[in-house]
Design brief:
By secondary structure, this protein is of the alpha/beta class. 31% of the residues lie in helices and 24% in strands. It folds into 3 domains: 129 residues, D-Maltodextrin-Binding Protein, domain 2 (3-Layer(aba) Sandwich), CATH 3.40.190; 99 residues, Periplasmic binding protein-like II (D-Maltodextrin-Binding Protein, domain 2), CATH 3.40.190.10; 72 residues, Double Stranded RNA Binding Domain (2-Layer Sandwich), CATH 3.30.160. It contains 10 helices and 14 strands.
């Protein structure tokens, strides 16, 4: 029997419940692929985790970064300093263009990509009353909700997934909240597959009901549902570790989505929804891009096999 390597590969992660679940999934995959390799974890508290009293945009402005950058800054600093070897991120938190010191090496097999509407009554979007208060910290979600239901009020909502659910259940300031389906699935609040035309409740949260919003109606964020593995650009061994546990089809899809964002010159703060599907090697890519001032979004669709070419075709198809 071969002895485990005495030099561990160190996985870096945020400390939220969802981030820890994602780190565990990464570690399990690494252990299966490299049974003789020691694996360690370093939990890093980010600016976004510390500052939950104000909106993401205000925190980002104070830090001189983009909105979701407040969730990766300290993790990338630990990566740069050699304190960790693989940074585990919710991919939608990563900018589309990384500093040259870093590299997105791989993504894990993607979870469901949809957004969900959580309410204190069943019925979904159509059941939201006029003037309903809908909580989210995402500009993309806010713009889409305001476009689809201009009669509701979108309110800022911060905190991790369980905190947001508790705020909806307990404080009465929100009639509904918008979250990512992947987070609720990974935390076992809802099953991976929904009940067709059925009423879904949030496990452990009596009185909260979930509606999974179809991608074609409510466009997800680029990379939503994917766990991204970031390494130092000059760290070939860590890149091999990450690439070995990566998922090829998920990589093709997120490459197309992120390249489309790059062409838009848009990062995680841009109000744009983009999603992809893949079948028999062909990728379908669709987008909805909202003007900063609000109003009717531009949309487009493209199909192809090369992610970068496909992203350009989608960019040129926007109208």
């Amino acid at each position: 029997m071969t002895e485990k390597s005495t030099t561990p590969i160190i996985v870096g992660t945020r400390g939220s419940e969802l981030a820890l679940v994602q780190a565990t999934a990464t570690e399990v995959a690494l252990a299966a692929a490299f049974p003789d390799q020691q694996i360690a974890r370093k939990v890093i508290k980010t600016t976004g985790d510390r500052r939950t009293d104000v909106s993401l945009s205000e925190v980002a402005k104070a830090e001189g970064t983009f909105d979701k950058g407040v969730f990766i800054k300290e993790i990338e600093e630990a990566l740069d300093a050699g304190e960790i070897d693989i940074a585990v991120h919710s991919l939608k938190d990563l900018p589309t263009v990384l500093d040259s010191r870093y590299l997105l090496a791989a993504v894990m097999e993607r979870a469901p990509v949809r957004d969900v509407l959580v309410m204190r009554q069943p019925g979904g979007m159509a059941a939201l009353p006029v003037g309903a208060r809908v909580g989210t910290s995402s500009v993309r979600r806010a713009k889409q909700m305001e476009w689809l239901r201009p009669d509701v009020t979108v309110c800022d909502l911060r905190g991790n997934v369980p905190t947001r659910l508790r705020k909806l259940a307990e404080d009465g300031n929100y009639d509904a909240i918008l979250l990512a389906e992947a987070g609720l699935v990974r935390l076992d609040f809802i099953p991976p597959v929904g009940i067709e035309n059925g009423v879904e409740e949030v496990a452990g949260m009596p009185g909260l009901f979930v509606t999974r919003l179809e991608e074609s109606t409510f466009f997800p964020a680029a990379g939503q549902g994917a766990i991204g593995l970031e390494v130092r650009a000059d760290d070939a061994p860590s890149r091999v570790f990450a690439e070995t546990i990566g998922h090829r089809e998920s990589w093709l899809r997120i490459t197309a989505e992120r390249e489309f964002l790059r062409l838009l010159d848009g990062g995680c703060h841009t109000p744009v929804g983009v999603f992809s599907t893949i079948s028999a090697g062909e990728i379908t890519l669709k987008a909805r891009v909202f003007p900063d001032a609000g109003g009717t979004p531009k949309s487009g669709e493209a199909r192809g096999t090369d992610p970068l070419t496909l992203a350009l075709e989608l960019f040129n198809s926007l109208s």
